[in-house]
Design brief:
mainly alpha, 13 helices, 0% strand, globular
Length: 336
């Protein structure tokens, strides 16, 4: 296998600009659309008077951030638009409060009603999964429109090797959709069984690590830094293990695992019996320390980063085919 190309100073500046764009969009325009009704409240559908409008605007901003970031740096790293949109969602969530205000609002309720908070957070996590999926789709579609499929570049283009390594988007690995709408080659996709195995390994290891890493936080009020670190560490280690056990060809399957972990965690919290002697600001379950928007956004960003770090670069097959066709004598000598 050829070695992946290194990013030049200009490439790094474009990549950092794409990430900064995602954060800037959500910290400015996004904050006006997603700010909670209570100045101390969290960025959550449960803390906004018009949840539907909030979701629509957040999805539009995520798609715009992903598209523009892909135009800036899509040729340098796969799913850079997805990562930029996830960074934006994390930034806007840090500007709001923690989940503590939601816990205080439910402190006086009956245990059966208090358990409904976990169900509400589960449903909200599904909504944020939809927003992240829109950003992922926008990143893949814009990548196809602007840069084409890996290997479409003319032979000798300095970007062709880079495209062979970094041009494969998560959307192109979706079974059925990738070949039909993004013109991905079926023989270059991850087999669905392999992908689902990667999802299962990542989700299982991640849930166990989340349970372990949040053990020491059970007696403390939630903090943004702790919540984001726990999600990033758990999913990062889980992806590291899964990429060694069941390697895949895109970040799609790690992202799906991160998305699956949030509903599973909140479902476990809903089924778990809550202690009655806890202070109002202390979550009755480990998973209720995590805001749904942070769970999904941090998980998505971590899954993309771990794919950048772990995935082996594919061989530049298209270049090899062109070079062999252009020089048959050289290919004959190599066979001898």
């Amino acid at each position: 296998m050829a070695q992946p190309p290194h990013l030049s100073m200009v490439d790094k500046m474009l990549t950092l600009a794409a990430w900064a764009l995602g954060g800037a969009v959500f910290l400015t325009v996004g904050w006006f659309a997603m700010a909670p009704d209570d100045p101390l409240g969290p960025v959550s559908l449960l803390a906004h008077h018009n949840a539907f409008a909030m979701v629509v605007q957040a999805a539009a901003l995520a798609a715009i951030a992903a598209a523009v970031s892909t135009v800036l740096a899509g040729r340098l790293l796969p799913d850079v638009g997805t990562f930029a949109a996830a960074v934006g969602l994390v930034c806007v969530s840090l500007r709001g409060g923690t989940v503590g205000s939601l816990l205080i609002d439910n402190a006086e309720a009956a245990p059966a009603v208090r358990s409904s908070l976990a169900i509400s957070m589960l449903l909200e996590a599904i909504v944020w999964i939809g927003v992240a999926a829109i950003a992922t789709a926008a990143s893949s579609v814009v990548m196809r429109w602007f840069f084409g499929q890996p290997g479409d570049e003319a032979h000798g283009d300095p970007h062709s090797v880079r495209a062979a390594f970094f041009g494969y988007q998560a959307g192109s690995d979706v079974p059925g959709i990738g070949p039909s709408f993004l013109h991905a080659r079926p023989d270059e996709q991850t087999p669905p069984v392999t992908g689902l195995s990667h999802v299962a390994v990542t989700a299982l290891v991640g849930i166990i690590l989340l349970r372990v890493l949040t053990e020491g936080l059970s007696a403390r009020s939630p903090q943004h830094g702790q919540s984001c670190f726990v999600v990033a560490a758990a999913i990062g280690i889980a992806c590291y293990v899964a990429h060694h056990v069941v390697p895949v060809r895109s970040a799609l399957w790690s992202i799906l695992a991160a998305w699956a972990m949030a509903p599973l965690g909140y479902l476990w919290a809903a089924l778990q019996a809550a202690p009655q002697d806890l202070p109002a600001v202390v979550p009755p379950s480990h998973f209720l320390q995590l805001l749904p928007i942070q769970f999904i956004a941090v998980g998505t960003a971590t899954a993309v980063v771990m794919f950048w770090y772990m995935a082996p670069p594919p061989e530049p097959v298209h270049q090899e085919r062109r070079s062999s066709k252009s020089s048959p004598a050289r290919a004959k000598r190599s066979r001898k």
